[in-house]
Write a structure and sequence with these properties.
By secondary structure, this protein is an alpha+beta fold. The chain has one domain: YjbQ-like (Jelly Rolls). It is about 30% helix and about 35% strand. The strands form two sheets. A five-stranded antiparallel β-sheet has the order 1-8-3-5-6, with helices on one face. The radius of gyration is 16 Å and the shape is elongated.
Length: about 140
């Protein structure tokens, strides 16, 4: 059996971190699937899905770490094509990834005690995003 739903969100722009764990859990409950896997996927090249402990310190640490690893102020060849100032956004999104697969057991996500599913906006402007949640199981 499979089930799919979309989560619609509006972001504030670059490094907006949105906890979508409750939305994904709600979709799993609606699906009626008790055991299987859930895939959370964002279409687009400047958004990412991952997990984090959603607490104030890490909400500051993650953007700072991304800036250290993939700084804005260096040359990205993407800028020569589109001139949109988001070459670093594409690289960051590629490194984190657009999806996450999470096991489902007894109708619940299998996550660590402090682990939440997040959407991370990496584009330089605010966006409307649709996140696809696809559940497969029994």
């Amino acid at each position: 059996m499979n089930y799919s739903e979309v989560i619609s969100i509006s972001t504030k722009g670059e490094t907006d971190i949105i906890n979508i764990t409750d939305d994904v859990s709600r979709i799993i409950k609606s699906s009626g699937i008790k055991n299987g896997i859930g895939c959370v996927f964002v279409p687009g090249a400047t958004g990412a899905i991952t997990t984090i402990e959603y607490e104030p310190g890490l909400l500051q640490d993650l953007p700072k770490a991304l800036e250290r690893l993939f700084p804005k102020g260096i040359e990205y060849r993407h800028e020569q094509t589109w001139h949109d100032g988001n070459g670093h956004s594409h690289i960051r999104a590629s490194m984190i990834g657009p999806s996450l697969t999470v096991p489902i057991k007894n109708g619940k996500l299998i996550l660590g005690t402090w682990q939440q599913i997040i959407f991370l906006e990496l584009d330089v402007r605010k966006r409307k995003r649709e996140i696809v949640v696809q559940i497969v199981g029994e």
